[in-house]
Amino acid sequence: MTSGLSAGLAAQRRAFLDDGPPDAALRRNRIDRLMAMILDNAEDFVTATATDYGSRSRSAAFFAEILGMISVIEHTRAHVPQWMKSTKLMRAARAVRLRAEVVPSPLGVVGIIGPWNFPIQLTVLPAAAAFAAGNRVMIKMSEVTPCTAALMAATAPRYFDTRELHVVTGGPDIAAEFAGLPFDHLFFTGSPTIGARVHQAAARNLVPVTLELGGKNPVVVSSDADVTRAATRIAQARMVNGGQVCVCPDYVFVPDPRVDRFVEVARRTLHGLFPTIIDNVDYCSSVNQANFERVVGLIDDARAHGARIDSVVPDGEVLPDTRSRKIAPTLIRGVDDRMRIAHEEVFGPVLVVHGYSTVDETIDYINERPSPLVAYWFGPDNADFRHFMSRTRSGGVARNDFAAHMIPSSAPFGGVGRSGMGAYHGKAGFDTFSHRRTVVGTDLSFSITGRAALPFTRSMRVSADLVLRRARSRTALRIKKFR
């Protein structure tokens, strides 16, 4: 028995070639049907994700999975006709019958491999961008959230012909086969480790990839920040989706004299947010036993190596709790490079707290490690912030609020280095799934490029020598002025 993936890809590619590039109206219609597929069945999708997790806030899921993507998709839909327009080049040359333009062209069939932490939003958003660019789409849903995957696969055919949108489910073997298909573009959201495997599989067919990965996102609380406000917001941000978010803060630098105050406020905030945990339906579980054990293992390893563990456990409860897969919010101090948590992305309700004396100390620490998906700064937009921003590298920068770099619907979202390659959201998504095709035509009576072919006359050689001397002179003069 075969999975039928190759046949699905072949059917989509045949339909793409037969029908030709879709116009703006059809692209928008596909985006509208994609939105309707989710909005019409929002309750079912939210219920499915809660079933997959075991415990997940209905309100949080609605906001993160459903409502949070609407503005980005609406922005994309509104700009489709504008982004489809060709860019005219050398406008003055039209007077002599030379025309040049760059035409955004659909790639063909886009493959999307979705993650488990936001299995709806993080498949629908790239699919909307791919539709805007005029492509067909195949989605591989995560096997870690099987209820959501099954619902998506069952719902999609009510809104799409499979030659437009084809949703695939299955385990790691199907995922590996999917990654190895000869798509025209492959989009993956997940961990750097799996992202590397996806990249290798795609490379065998020279398939271009966009990788939206994770990383250990740093936070710096500046010396002139409001430490109470910073600690409150950072503690809240760490607990979004139980800490299972690629843009969650992972570790925080606090000025040495203010570390105790920061921890005190963070503890108080977490106690207030979660007076109960085990039976609290709004407290998000670890998605599965493997992730639960991994996060508990990170805490235990840090404790064994001498770190100071501060678990915020409600009175009368014993955590971590294997049955509910819930781990108490945990603050850890005294982390050093011997500990796994210093190197692994936590992806759980754990925040590491470091003290620091100078901003350059935090910059050096961050730069010695792989580039994160986002770097956070709490404090004013001053010289220290600008110095920090210019001397570090990250996918985005957010100041004074969780995921603030994602607020503008038109802003590109993506990582750099080990946190990802490529970007989407807004026009960046349209460009990711388009080929910018240069088209130049001439109706001149002579060949502009004919000088590159034989015969080479004496006048051509004299002209070439003159151009070379002038270019040398200009370059030398610019270098001299710089000095």
TrEMBL record:
The keyword Ribonucleoprotein does not apply. GO terms for cellular component: cytoplasm. Pfam families: Aldedh (PF00171). The lineage of its organism: Bacteria, Bacillati, Actinomycetota, Actinomycetes, Mycobacteriales. InterPro entries: Ald_DH/histidinol_DH, Ald_DH_C, Ald_DH_CS_GLU, Ald_DH_N, Aldehyde_DH_dom, Aldehyde_DH_NAD(P). One of its GO terms (biological process) is aldehyde metabolic process. Belongs to the aldehyde dehydrogenase family. Residues 24-439 form the Aldehyde dehydrogenase domain. The keyword Oxidoreductase applies. Gene3D superfamilies: Aldehyde Dehydrogenase, Chain A, domain 1, Aldehyde Dehydrogenase, Chain A, domain 2. This is Aldehyde dehydrogenase. Keywords: Oxidoreductase. The active site is at E212, C246. It comes from the Bacteria. GO terms for molecular function: aldehyde dehydrogenase (NAD+) activity. PROSITE patterns: ALDEHYDE_DEHYDR_GLU (PS00687). It comes from Mycobacterium aquaticum.
